[in-house]
Amino acid sequence: MKKKNKKLIDKKGLRMDGRKPDELRSVKLEVGILPNADGSAYIEMGKNKILAAVYGPKEMHPKHLARSDRMVLRCRYHMAPFSVQERKSPAPSRREVEISKVIRDSLVPAIFVENYPRTGIDLFIEVLQADGGTRCAGITAAALAIAEAGIPMRDLVVACAAGKVDETIVLDLMDTEDKVGSADVPVALMPNLNAITLLQMDGILNPDEFEEALNLALKGCKKIYEMQREALKTKYVNLKEVEEQ
Ligand code: CDP
Predict the structure, then answer these.
(1) Residues whose beta carbon lies within 6 Å of some atom of ligand 1
(2) 238 falls in which pLDDT band (50, 70, 90)?
């Protein structure tokens, strides 16, 4: 549930961190940062700092979880106790269980799971610092980690939220906007297939506002997708340079 509105947009139409309503926070993406993982990525989105690590495909344990016709993606989204101002218990909360599920469901459509029957991949999303929109940032990093693990994908998956604060539709809400604003719509997209794999809404929007927020979130996704491609390219250009030396 959203709290009551307070002033989040100033007289010039700018947000608390100086952004325009349709502006993303600054995004930094890095691929291949954990040598022990089969694939990994790191994202900074504003003050969010999140790691994604992928292990597999490998034999499923316990075996009864294996599926004879596909690979199983197991996902654990977790916030470190020090990731928020008020210490968070390290035990998985209901929120984390739900976010783990929606992240998994947003990524599975992009993976050729049918090519790897009886196997599993483990995806860990570890939030080191949280400032609103961590499920979206986690999905963006996770898709890069899966790609780096060499797991065949139909498309990348990229995610971004839009919402409503002070009667204005805004892109990429930070923590205060998420908590004090009146709505938040996280969206995940397979950008080349133009297919939405996650669509949630917390708060209240009328149909026109919802459409505006959805379109804005999709625009944000497309911008972040270009950064995802750059991050993947950078990783492989660097590898090529090392090999050539
Ligand atoms: O992070 P996301 O927007 O995907 O999920 P949320 O449940 O809407 O959480 C919004 C924000 O609340 C998080 O990004 C954190 O910054 C904050 N939060 C917190 O301060 N303490 C928690 N135990 C959980 C979330």
Answers:
(1) 84, 88, 95, 130-135, 175, 178
(2) confident
Contacts of 16 (CB under 8 A, 6+ apart): 8, 174, 176, 177
Separation of CA 232 and ligand 1 centre (Å): 28
Residue 240 Cα to ligand 1 middle (Å): 39
Q: How far is the CA of 227 from the centre of ligand 1 (A)?
A: 24
Dihedral angle of Cα 104, 130, 147, 221, to the nearest 10 degrees = 90
Please indicate, yes or no, if residue 3 is contained in any of the structural domains: no
41 found inside a domain: yes
The pLDDT of 169-186, averaged and rounded, is 97
Question: Within a 13 Å sphere around the CA of 143, how many CA atoms are in the beta-carbon half?
Answer: 34
**pTM (predicted TM-score):** 0.96
Residue among 43, 78, 84 whose CB has most ligand 1 atoms within 8 A, to mutate: 84
Give the three-class secondary structure for 222: helix
Total domains, the chain: 1
Here the tokens at position 63 are: 């075996």
Q: What's the domain range around 206?
A: 27-244
